[in-house]
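Discussion board: Methods & Data

I've been asked by a reviewer to show the raw model output for two of the constructs in my manuscript, not just the figures. I'm not sure how much to include, so I'm pasting the format here to get opinions. Each protein appears as its amino acid sequence followed by a line of discrete structure tokens. Is this the kind of thing reviewers expect to see in a supplement, or should I convert it first? Here is construct A:
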Amino acid sequence: MKNKTPINTHITIEGSRSNNTLEQLYIRLRPTGFVKKLITGWELSEEAEKWLISDDDLYLAAILSANIRYFSEILAVLRKGPITSRAIQDVASNEYKLSWKTKI
């Protein structure tokens, strides 16, 4: 955003086969509360700016917990040890009556 990279730029991440534009990634990030779209374009949220300045992992977790359903519960499940994404979905469904449609 600060570098004024065009939003139609394809972003590559080492080790990933993903082929998304910068705008597609912004759209995916929007529910996390890190970015917002204005009439003038995309910008970082105040929370994201504060986190980047503070470099505080607990503040990051608070942002994610506030904006992503089941985030804290996933962390609690992961504290018990390694688990598959399918098992995390099963816990969400059986214990919290939550489901999602994204790919596993």
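Construct B, same format:
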Amino acid sequence: MKKTKSLTILLYVFAVLSLAYTCYAAIQAYNTFISYYSTNIDVLNLVMYMITTCYQSLCFSVLFYALGVFSENFKKPEEPVVVEEKTETTEENKKEEEK
């Protein structure tokens, strides 16, 4: 399994909880609108009421999800790798090694 950061998991949990709250708020807004305006239901007013009730929590769920994806792809800067140069052994080096 791929190792994930705890921050990423926390952001995804917040995104799911915010999305669940958005669904709950949408259902409550619909029921409230229907109970108040049961005789004169205008679709435009219903849509506007749903948007004003739910847009904040929907924006937060999108924001939490985007931050989770960003933190998953974000990597720490790696330490510089020291590369050893490979030297060719010439006849002079062989003679020095033999001494």
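Answer (T.O., handling editor elsewhere):
This is acceptable in a supplement if you add a one-line summary per construct. For B, something like: The mean pLDDT is 80.
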